[in-house]
Amino acid sequence: MNPLISAALVALGLPAALALLLAVVPKLRRTGKPAALLSILGSLLALSAAGWLAATWLHDPKQVLDLTTSWLPQSGKSMSQVGVHLDGISVSMLLVVAIVASCVQLFSLGYLSDEPAPALGRYYAYQSLFLFSMNLLVLAPDLMQLFLGWELVGATSYLLIGFWFTRPAAGKAALKAFVVTKFADSGLILALITLVAWTGSFSWNATLPAGGAEWLALFLFIAVMGKSAQFPLHIWLPDAMQGPTPVSALLHAATMVAAGVYLIVRADPIFAAAPHVRLFMTDLGAITALFAALIAMVQTDIKKVLAYSTCSQLGYMISGLGAGSLMGGYFHLTTHAFFKALLFLAAGAVIHAVHSNELSDMGGLWRKLKFTTVAFVIGSLSLAGLPGLSGFYSKDLILEAVHESGNPLALGLLMATAGLTAFYMTRTVVKAFFGKPSHAAEHAHGPGPSMTIPLLILLVPAIGLGWLAGPMSKLYGRSYAFHLDTIGMVTIALGLGGIALGWLIYGMGLLQALPRAFAPIARIANGSTVDDLWALSYSKLGMGLARAIAWFDRYIIDGLMNFLGWLFMWSGQRVRTLQTGNVQDYLYAVFGAAALIALWGGWR
Amino acid sequence: MTAILLISSALFCAGVYGLLSQRHAVGVLIAIELMINAANLLLVGFGWRTGGAFGQSFALFTMAIAVAEVVVGLALILLMYRSRGDVQVDQATELAQ
Amino acid sequence: MSHLLSIIIAAPFVAALLLLPCRSTDRLLMRWISLLGSLVSLTGSLIVAWRYDIKAGGLQMAELYPLVPSLGIDIRLAVDGWGVSLLLLTGIIITTGVLASWTLKDREKEFFALLLILVAGVFGVFVCQDLFVFFLFYEIAVLPMYLLIAIWGSSNKVADAGPFRFIWKLFDIGGREYAAMKLTLMLLVGSAFILVAVIALYQAAGAHTFDMGVLGAFKYDASLQKWIFPLVWLGFGTLAGVFPFHTWSPDGHASAPTAVSMLHAGVLMKLGAFGVIRIGMMMLPEGAHAWVWAVGLIAAINVLYGALSAMAQKDLKYIIAYSSVSHMGVVMLGAATLTQGGWNGAVYQMFAHGIMTGLFFALVGLVYERAHTREVGKMGGFAQAMPIVAAFFTLGCLSSLGLPGTAGFVAEFLVFAGAWSGPHLWWALPAVAGAFITAIYVLRVTRDVFWGPGPSEQFHDLLDARKTELGALWILGTCIVLFGLWPRLLLDYIDPATTQNLAMATQTAQLTPTPATAVAAQAPPPVAPPAATAAVAHAAAGGGR
Amino acid sequence: MNFHDLQPMALGVLLAAAAALVLLTDLFTKPSTKPNLGWLTFGLLSAVLVASFTLDLRGEVASHVWRGGAWPVFLARLFLVAGLITVLGGMDHIARKWTYRQGEFYTVLLLCLTGMVLLPGARDLVLLIVCFELMGIPLYILTAFAKTDSGPKPVEAALKLFLIGAGSTALTVFGAALLAGLAGTTDMSVLVSSTLSPLQGIGTMLLLAGLAFKIGVAPFHMWVPDTYEGAPTPVVAFLSVAPKVGGFATLVMVLWQALPRLIHVWGPVTLVLCALTLTVGNLGAIAQRNIKRLLAYSGVGQVGYVLLGLLSGREFGVAMMLFYLAAYVVTNLGVFLVAHAVAEAGDGETISSFDGLGRRSPWLAMSLLLFLLSLAGIPFVAGFWAKFFVFVAAWRAGQSEMVLVGALFATVALFYYLGVARAAYVNVSAKTEKIVVSRALAGAIIACLLAVVGLGAWPSPVVEAAMAAARSVSGIGP
Amino acid sequence: MSSLEISLYAVGSLTLACGLLAMGVRNLVHALLWFGLSLMGTAVLFAQLGASFLAGMQILLYVGGVVMLLIFGVMLTREHEHLGAVREVNHRIRAAVVSLVLFAALVMAILHTPGLDQAPGLASQATAGVTLDQLAVALLGPYGIAFEVLSLLLLATMVGAIVLARKRDPGEPTGRKPIGRQNLGKQRIEGLASPIIALPAAAASVAAIATVQAPTVAVQAQAPQTTEPAVSEHESPAEQPTDDTTDAPVDVAAAVALSAQGDQP
Fold it and tell me: Rounded to 10 degrees, what is the CA torsion of A181, A183, A185, A188?
């Protein structure tokens, strides 16, 4: 067996084994810290395997390795394969996932130190399960295994969001997250069954009948909208912040939400043949980006800001992919994974220190948490697209692609979003770290080593990844040459302008008129009409229909059955009263019947 | 032969009429005897028509059966009288519905 | 002639007989006897699975015992791929059922005896190849239900409303005797239809044997098939919870004690679906072909209807009962597609849903035993008191909404794929919508019952599952995950059997196998059990003119 | 006419002798030793039953007036079994209630049995009617045997039975007169080829009406519930079983044997009567509170199925009908004896008197359940095979709708049978003391139980015997 | 319309009239009398049809036996005067409808049945009818078995009627309630008297049975007196010894009356 494949199997199998072990052996799980260390060890091993794979692929990007076995036999042949498929795209994503996952697991050790032991054990069981399902998704040889990983990731996100199940809000959020994603996943199911109906297997580069790619792409995109929180289905992402911050960092920033983008990248042959859908993607991505950015501006909870920012960046990636530049979308996914994870973990450190998510409780933290402030600032600068940092390069690629695809509307929206992103990140940085310290921020205490090391690790790619664009493009099998043109210049200007504006308003307290202008947007955001729309449709439409049908079943159909029973009882009663007890009537019956049949006998 | 048939049928129907309208147990017995008598008449008639002895012997047997029934009937009527005090057939509705 | 199959059927029966003499005081002995009986059957079905030669396929381990030779009725046992998986399911469910009812208090002797007789009937149906004895076992499987529910069941109140309000005066709707009687009568009306169909088939095929192989291969004329199929479909469909005749299942399951509802929803409803496919579709191809649109339509309604009404229920057991109706709809939908994928999915769903419902009802039994209420509104925050039950309940929920990695997904996916590639495309849509709605109400129940702050003060003795119940939960839990992650364990058995059976169902129907599944249209006649003695053509076949 | 050529009728003769013997011994026994009269009758009956197996009963007596063969022997065995179980079951009751008139009871019973045993062989209309009456009249006497000891009910029951019975005899005689007269002879084998005429049609109908009374077919069944409720239970057990078999045997011989060419006349009428009987029988039983009235209606319902068997063809239909009757005899006797045992324990005859039987006497409850399941036609008990075979026969004769109707009514039937089973097992009653059952009665119930379960498990031998009997009556077999 | 038919019609209509009156009259005894007359009418018809023996039997058996028996039945069960033997009639219309429907069916069938009148035997033996020895040969030839079975029937009827009609079973102590099995033993001493009475009763019943059997055996030789058994069955109660108890006079009279009536062979 090829050592590379065995490495991939280790990356896949080890977290699964750990998750199973922690789940099945309650005693081990209840020990708490040791279980956590075991899980972290597993993720580190997976990281080393991923790293080794990435290294080999870097100097031989065209290599493709497969190890699959039949999973669903049908009439003799096998309908779907399960196993490991290694190529440039999957290896790079594997590395990203491994890095972020191990950092998060390490970080969680410190962040959740005051959790009771069994809960901690349960948390790390979920973490290992998540790592396994994400790897399963990444290494999928065909769309079926991708779907397996896809749903398992959704389930683990449900479990992780609802980790603190005693809190009703967490319960509601977990359910909402799972239901919305499940709703979108029916799109993926439709795609799969169409694919199997046409081609008999689930591989993405099978030949499709004419026009088939359009339908398939549309179904796939519906699932992506759900998972990657695009405009109408984004409502679950902000609520998902109920889960512990490391979970938000891992799932709702770097990996899980990126799965949608990964699906588009993976199923590129299908999307390539579906121009209309790609156009729709670009527009939708742009709209989501702007919409999320606007709402992020008025958020008071630091995690909500980052959540909406993720939503907006995902819009970016999708519109990039829609515009046809696989390189742009996928590279942005990678860079975003790192600096957004960095931002979330830093925010986690802050929350851990201040014990509250609200920006108003923070302020002037740069004195107490020096290193976290540096990390957060670099992360936000990279997000804002400061040239030199990784964020700029990937965002620039996307803007160029959208520009080349000739979609001025989308380009405008995306440019505006770039500016807004810089603005709200500065607002958050200023509100949280500079400004006058609030009461809680007084006695905040610095994060422990287990929290700072992951931040350090994540800082490196957040800064340096931009320069590695060349080798990464070879991995993706696309050409890349960095050149700065007018679009790049304008975005840089917008970014710097946004930072300056943010500093002026929040840092210096000038131009207070602008925040008041944002008030109506705040009302829309908090009211989040889209959210109510979904809730309303569920309670009125869904439950109403359900109650109607339940009533119909119990009182009409069941009623009919009871009526039948009643009818027999009633007729039984009638027959019983026929028996008067008087011999005269009996004789009458006998001879009446005799006369009748005699009449009939005679007539025949 | 049609004469015999007509008469015996009429007698039979008279018996049926009596059977359904009598209230006294003995009355019912009379009706039944009348019906059986009609049957005997019919048998003798057919016997006469075809000349075989089957008619008359069959009639003899029926007579014997009829008498047996009367005897048992009377015994029952006696019992009914003893247990109910009267012999009105349509009052005997102890066993109903 | 191996005697394995008859041992599997006889084991519970013998255990039931062994129970009768022992005194009602030695409780443990009785439990161990019934557990032993079910374990023998379980291991038997495992051995059958082990010794079943997948390459050869077809009917194996045949056995023949004459019963009424003059009419051509003899107990003919054999097992094909489907039989293996369904035997396994029944074995698992009865073992876990016995484990789950370990803490039963009153008259457990009769309870276990009736339960074991019921399961013996079910075992018989799955392996029987003689149409008449098939019907015999079917009746045995249906009958103990009445006593089991009427004596050990529980009553629940139903508000009187709607146009038939006056009936509430006559029956106490929702009570356990009402539920038991309704269940038995509706199932028996169904079996009346089946009886007529059985006789019709027997008569049309020359009235000398009841051997399913012969009756199946016989070419009945199309018009006869056209009116026999609905009889078979409604007859078995009533047990499978087909739409208009499903009303017995919510009341029946809600009133039945734990083990009984586990067995009933878990296995008996599969009996109905198995009957429809085995007799309806395989023996009456033209009939099936003519009526398949109705079966599919009703099945699609079933899925959506069951899911929606489950969403509005307030009693825990009713929710699960309606979800069984919805999942059985998926099975019937798979059967109605007459495609390889659909049938694979249908049989797999029988297995998967059996395990799931078994787990659900076991858990609900535990919760009811401790919290003495099934009102979802009253309960809350149970996870703290009983984490293991909460964990297994969540696993059950994830499986019932079709999360990949659990058995539920594989089955549902195969059915959807089969439906989508089958002649009626739009059936798959309500099914997918149904799966989605299942996700809503199932997870909402988990949140209402288990999550949330601590259990309210009225639930003081909420202790977690003990060892026997734990054993049951572990068996079912591992099955769900095992057959979810690696479906080939079962599909290797089911798939070849489906190819053969489907060939029987489509060979005379001129239904060109749908292009997508490229069914290898080889149609080997089912391997007739070795040297079945030709039934004595009894002299009275002439009958009266 | 010496004894030798009465060989085929040996069973009848033996029974008559037994009756005389019992009557004589009754004279010389003191009241205290009267109970062993019951055992004497039991002994004599079992002796005759054994004789039916050992003696060669084929051949004809007095120039084909009475013909032996498989048909009379099968039915004779059925009657003897019914008689045996009734005597065994009722012995204790009779000895206690009618200590001084036991002898007469057994004599009349034996004479009634003689009539029944001689009935199937009769090939002559006169002999048939006389045997029919010999079966009928003793029943009036037996029903009224409790005289006025315990209230007016038995007498009223007997009176109703008598009045309707006498009326039906008149009908039968008139019908027979018409038929015999037109054909010019009373020999049934000649009757077959008689010329068709409307008068003959009316004669057949009247004869059918007269015979139908005995079986309790729908419009003529009015006496059944009242008589069953009024008369003493052991007599009712016998009354509900033996005359029905006798009635059906007569119907088979008259309709299939003597008047096959008139099938277009009596066929449709019987079909209508069968449907009516099924409906009235099953519906009537639903709302009943008294167990004996319920069993009366259920008996009427069962007659519907037997009639369906009768209709479905001369040979296979009749064979299946015989098997159904065999199963019915054993099951109905069993149920009545269980009801009797419960009534003897002082509980009365309402269904609620069965409450908590499961606890008070488990074996009695178990046998009750099995009997009820057999009546309802549930597998692995005699009743299921019976119903199934009748359905197959009916289907083969083209009555497919009736099969569906029959199957659905079987479900309705299960409703009220389960009602009784529910009372026994589910309901809890205040009384908890064990029900003590006398040895003889227990023996009878166990005998029925073994027969029902035996027939259920291995019906083949009885099926073969029934087929042989059917062949012999339709003139093909011996 | 031969002369025979005319006379048949005449007598027949007469009989019918008496029959109808028997059914319609309000007073029961009158009904009984009319019934007797109609029976005599039938007897005349029998005679006309050549069945002279049968006519004799009819008179003897029906008119003599049955009617008398019924009259006694009425006398015995005469409830207190005010009710009177009246039997007013309800549901009269219903009964009339049924009988008319039946009659219509019969008449229709008679008219439609061909060949009723020109049957072979009609002309030749119009007068002779069936001779006595032919009848006797038939009774003992083909109907021999029926004859024997009939005797069994009459035995059963006799035993049954006696059991039902008697007020007190032989050997039963005078206590009204039938004693249960358990206290049978105690009765032994003072019950000594009962066996003494039982002995002659047993002897009497043996004799009765013998007389019944005897005629049937005897009759096998000579045909005519066949119907005795029908008559003789009332003899056995005659030997019933008059009980020593002072029961109500009515039933003693009944026993005597019954026996008296049956004595004239």
Answer: -150
C-beta atoms surrounding E133 within 10 Å: 12
Phi, psi of C77 (to 5 degrees): -110, 140
Please choose, from the candidates A158, A135, A155, the residue with its C-alpha nearest in 3D space to the C-alpha of residue A146. A135
User: What is the least distance, in Å, from the CA of E171 to any CA of chain D?
Assistant: 7
Q: What's at D407, amino acid-wise?
A: A
Q: How confident is the model at residue E195 (pLDDT cuts 50, 70, 90)?
A: very low
On whether any CB of chain B is under 8 Å from the CB of D136, the answer is: no
| Residues whose CB is less than 8 angstroms from the CB of residue D142 and which lie 6 or more positions away in sequence, other chains included | D105, D108, D109, D112, D231, D235, D238, D239
Tell me chain C's radius of gyration from C-alpha atoms: 22
**How many helices (H) and strands (E) would you count in chain C?**
22, 2
**Exposed / middle / buried, residue A59 (Cβ in 10 Å: 0-12, 13-18, 19+):** exposed
Verify that E79 and E153 share a domain, yes or no: no
**CA quadruple B44, B46, B47, B51: dihedral sign:** positive
Q: Which domain holds residue A570?
A: 554-603
Three-state DSSP class for A81? strand
Chain centroid offset of residue A260 CA: 7
Query: What are the residues facing C116 on neighbouring strands?
Result: none
Number of domain units in chain C: 1
- The DSSP H or E segment spanning D227 is helix D223-230
Q: Which residues contact E93 (CB under 8 A, 6 or more apart)?
A: none
At C74, is the secondary structure helix, strand, or coil? strand
Cβ atoms of C355 and C407 closer than 8 Å: yes
**How far apart are alpha carbons C290 and C166 in whole angstroms?**
40
Give dist(CA C71, CA D446) in Å, integer. Answer: 29
Q: Please tell me whether residue C62 adopts helix, strand or coil conformation.
A: strand
pLDDT digits (tens, 9 = 90+) for E219-247: 444 433 333 333 333 333 333 333 333 33
Q: What is the pTM of this model?
A: 0.84
The C-alpha atoms of residue D13 and residue D11 are separated, in whole angstroms, by 5
D201 with E109: Cβ contact below 8 A: yes
Number of alpha carbons in the 13 Å side-chain half-sphere of residue A467: 5
Range of the structural domain that residue E40 is part of: 1-89
Cα–Cα separations (whole angstroms), residue C286 to C195, C226, C347: 20, 7, 22
Mean pLDDT of B65-92: 85
pLDDT in tens, D171-228: 999 999 998 888 888 888 777 777 778 888 888 899 999 999 889 888 888 889 889 9
Residues 553..592 of A with a Cβ closer than 8 Å to D: which? 568-569, 571-576, 579, 581, 583, 585-587, 589-592
CA pair distance A260, A281, nearest whole angstrom: 12
Residue D478 lies in a domain: no
For chain C, which residues score pLDDT lower than 50? 509-545
Q: Is C170 on the interface with D (CB under 8 A)?
A: no
D427: in domain: yes
In angstroms, the CA D314 to CA C544 distance is 5
CA distance C435 to C442: 10
Buried-state track C251-287, b at ≥16 Cβ within 10 A, e below 16:
bbbbbbbbbbbbbbbbbbbbbbbbbbbbbbbbbbbbb
Residue D413 is which amino acid? A
Instruction: Tell me whether residues A581 and B90 touch, CB distance under 8 A.
Output: no
CATH number of B2-86: 1.10.287.3510
Cα separation values, A597 from A112, D206, D207, D276, E108, Å: 94, 8, 11, 14, 14
Contact B94/A587, CB-based, under 8 Å?
no
Residue pLDDT, tens place only, A103-139: 999 888 888 888 888 888 889 999 999 999 999 999 9
In chain B, domain spans: 2-86
